[in-house]
Structures are given as C-alpha cells and as structure tokens.
Predict the structure.
Amino acid sequence: MLDLDFPTAQAAPASAQDWLATQEKLRGDYSTCATDFTITQDPTAYKAAEHRLWQKLFGRQSQVAQRYAAKAFLDGMSNLDMPSDHIPDFEAASKRLRALTGWEIVAVPGLIPDDAFFRHLAHRRFPVTIWIRAEHEIDYLVEPDVFHDFFGHVPLLTQPIFADYLQEYGRKGDEAMRLGATRILARLFWYMVEFGLIREDGAIKAYGAGMLSSATETAFSVDSPKPHRVMFDLPRVMGTDFRIDDFQSTYFVLDRFEDLFAAMKQPFAPLYARLQTARLIPASELRPGDGVITKGHQ
Ligand code: HBI
Ligand code: FE
C-alpha cells in the first residue's frame, strides 16, 4: 500500500520562474537570482531597525543557547564570532568557515527548490536567506529568515563532524529525488538538523536550528514533560511524520554527532523502498524497539 501522504515524484520545473509559480507566496525577491538561486548580499543595505531586530533576537536567543544548547553549538558561536548587534556580513563569516571546515555561506532570497538546496549542501555551501523578519513576527514566522538560517544553522557548520554529515545529506539528494523519496530524506533534515537533541554527560541539550532560533521551543524540547524523547535511529526518523504548525511531539536524541554521520554510510535505496510501502509513523507515537529516554504526556 502506498501512503497517500507521499507526493508522487515531481517533474523538475524548467526554470526558476516555473518553480516560483508552484510556490505559495514567497517573500523574497527572486528576480535577480542566478540559476543556482544565489544572490548577492549587500551588508550595507539593511536599515537600522533591521539591525536592531537582529540585536534583540540575538540577545534573547544567546541566553537560551547558554542554558540549553549543546557544547558544539556554543563552540560554533564563539568560533564564528557572530555579531550581536548587526546582521552578519556573509562574506566575513564564510572566510572563517572556510578556514575551519571548508564550508561557506551563499546568499539566497528564501526557500529554494530541493534540487538546488541539495546541490549547495553537497558542495559545502549553506544557503542563508538575506532578509530579516518584521518586528511583529519576532516570535514566529513561516519562512526561514536570516536569523533562523544564520544563528540557527551556521554555528554547527564550524564543527567538522556535523559539517561532514550535512554534506553527506546533500549528496543523498539526487538519489532521493530519482526514487521519489525526497519527503523521506527531508524528515532526516527536519528531526536531526532542525530539531535535534544530544546527550552530554547525561544531560539533554539542544542543537537543532529550528528550536535554537525559537523563543520557546528550546526550553520545551529539553525540559517539558510533554514530548517523547527517543534515541536516534535512522529508519525510525525517516519513517516518522512531523509537525510544522506546533512544537514537535517527538524529539530524537544523539549520544554523539559521529552516530549521525555513521548512519549516512548505509545504502538508502532499500530503506526508501521499505518506507514507501510502510505506514507513516504518527509524530506522537512510540513504537516497540524505541530507545525511549522520556515518554511524554503529550
Ligand atoms: N531552501 N533556503 C532553503 N532552506 C531550506 O532549509 C530548504 C530549502 N529548500 C528545500 C528544503 N529546505 C528541504 O525541503 C530539503 O531538506 C529537502
Ligand atoms: Fe532551517
């Protein structure tokens, strides 16, 4: 039985304009982007109010990070010397990143098509949105902005193992698209890049960009009795539905980033074949065999 939730493989749009036409209104300006969807960041073009909003977000989220973030994330923040009072200059950050892990940042207008996104990651380029949210969206916005992309994602790119993992993720993109399994692969990104937890000396810490750029989900993911916390298992993660409209019902937990990287070495095609005929695991379900760390009240 094929789960109806899985989209059929989509034909690649012929051009950026065709892709844009398939998207719900996106905020960015895609009119000047290159075929790989990159644009140029002009760090002098931001308004003072936009820098102030960065400062406000940075102040709030670095406090959250001090208390709840994984050591790798905090080390990453200090390696980058991330500015606290203005939107970062991507080229300056890329210079540091290249020296540390060979990654760089490329500027994009916002969400980009899967194939372009995978290709950038496969070449150790992380797409970062140039615009910042509006003041009234300080706590929640739909599309990723520069604060989410930069503050949330870039610190871990300074960490060699995570940096290698994310490149492997990008390298898996072609095969996944060919096999109609993009949604399955994307769940790995969702749970282990956006909302990942890691155990350090017995304590649960957050490293996911989605939670660490959020005002409230970091504390929820680490402290709340509501969600399940389950040990990372690649097929389990790839077979689990996720929520985009609320906090996660289940978080997956690593003991070390090496486990994430090591899991990328197995062939994914047989996993896709199995998961494409299996029932999608609901986000709030626990299963026999789960390495349950906390069973949530939900
Ligand atoms: N584009 N800019 C941007 N950022 C993302 O995180 C992103 C994207 N395009 C596709 C995408 N993520 C995911 O659907 C892939 O992981 C499959
Ligand atoms: Fe993200």
User: Anything to note?
Assistant: The first strand starts at residue 104 and ends at 108. Residues 108, 111-112, 114, 117, 127, 144, 182, 186, 189 surround 7,8-dihydrobiopterin (ligand 1) (CB under 6 Å). The first helix runs from residue 16 to 22. The beta strands are 104-108, 125-129, 197-200, 203-206, 228-231, 250-254, 292-294.
